[in-house]
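ERR on first pass: missing label on line 2. Operator R.T. fixed the label and resubmitted. Corrected input:
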Amino acid sequence: MILQIIVNGLTMGCVYALIALGYSMVYGSLRFINFAHGDVYMWGACFGLIFARMGNIPFLAALILTMICTGLLGVTVEFLAYRRLRNVPRVVVTASALGASIVLSNLARVIVGAETYSVPAFFETKYFTVGNLVLNSLQFVLLGCSIVLMLVLNWFISKSKYGKAIRATSENQEVTNLMGINTNKIISVTFFIGSALAGAAGLLVGIYYDAVYSTMGYMAGMKAFTAAILGGIGSIPGAMLGSMILGQIESFGTTYISSSMGPAIAFAVLIIVLLVKPTGFFGAGDTHSNRV
Amino acid sequence: MDIKKILKSHKAQFGIVLAVAFFLPMFVKDASVTHIMILVLLYVILSMGLEIALGITDLFSLCHAAFYGMGAYVSALLSIYLGWSFWVTLPIATICAGLFGFLIGLPALRTNGDYLAIATLGFGEIFRLILVNGGDFTRGPRGLTGIARPELFGLDFTNKNVYYYIILAATVSIFLVVYNIPRTFFGRALMAIRDDEAAAAFMGIQVSKYKVTAFTLSGMIAGIAGAFYAHYICYISPDTFVYNDSITILTMVLIGGGGTVIGPVVGAVILTILPELLRSFVEYRMLIYGLVVVVMMQIRPMGILGHLNIRVSYLERRLKKNQPDSRKGKEV
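pass 2 clean. output:
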């Protein structure tokens, strides 16, 4: 029983991690909560649905195509809604993000539809029983894809030239500019990567739960954001660790406390973390805050 | 000659708006239009409440709908279970919503900016989940039905016009209170905290006390709107007081211009009427709403009436024009 709960928590933790990374990376470079990120995740599920309906696209191709599409979507949102708002109070950018979130979710309502859709299977689901533990192939695919994506991201951020530029931009935008790096371009890259990961998460969740609907972004986005804060916003390993912890808390909470209060548990964790240690596990703290 | 000057004074503008608001129902025959007018007034009250927290003090709150819901539920529950009159439940609902604001204001001491936004969002969501899982007491997602209408001197409150005037009176009083806040010591302390928290603390302002007071006051005002709403619609459910409504009120304040007091009123009027005008495009209604918010933030980041702020940012831009722009780095 406990093993089953841990595995379920791990699965959800991986999904949260993929979304949380986008929040964390954007917060690292622009210092605002990208409320539209959850809806980019939802669009990932929608793209997945569209590719699955075409029928003849293999799973990996659909995953990559979805990631490219959502990545471009994220870049477009940044270009249209945030780029001009670099020198205004952050509450304005956040409001713009909230508007973008409304636009994205309602665009999905108009284009894809307002109902809950089931996703045609890319492959056959097999069930494995190990003792009392029931696993299915979808869980393996989800875990495998997320872990590979996170490893690739980790390599990209820590080793590649662009990764270095992304880290520099989040450290200090002005100085990075002075070093001859086009920070606007780097921020676009950040949005592309973050949104692509969220899109992958959307596709995987859409297949895993066999349900795609236009409001699925809000809850997942909020939970992922909680995870990002838990780990320390702006920190990539923090986002991964925070997501895994939140996945477990939620999995145990829904089993032992109450299933309908599941989201409340996540939010209670969020509030406790904010009150006790707002910087999370790995966060260096909000250097822009004017705390007394 | 002097008419222009008179028209520019706030008192004259206020008088004109009040006169229009007062005489408008006499020309309106359609009950659905009166309904929209009542909604406009409710949203004006709500945005006034948020203006204290967000506009004047810069406390980014995303749980305003929870205060609204608190007022509505307290008033409705007292009215249903104890049969109390609206005029008793209204003050109690106001106090309860204020207490709720006080409780949520406490984390405001420890968190800031975006963190506060997220914490309040969490509180709002927990409030909704409590309502949904409240069992027989709150009747869960089905909501409360059969809430009694107010009674006063034998007036017929099923008549929407009567209700309109009662809410108009409440709106005007609340507006006058909020309008005068920036002119009091209390309001100046709040604005000092908004502009520079450290400097305000240095000047001897008890930052935490004022922040919590601002939140409490903001909650109380939302609670009033909630009580009026509950006894007007006579039916409330948790769906009315969710995240989306907090966002709606937030965008009203920001589109009108936070910190200007009049701005949020304008924002509330525009953003309540806009979706009603778009009623015939049900599919695209929220899409257009979202687009309006994004576009408004691009062209007037400080809100429609945030002229003072616009001028400052305009000056800044002019100054920056003469300097090399730091944002346009080129790759070497």
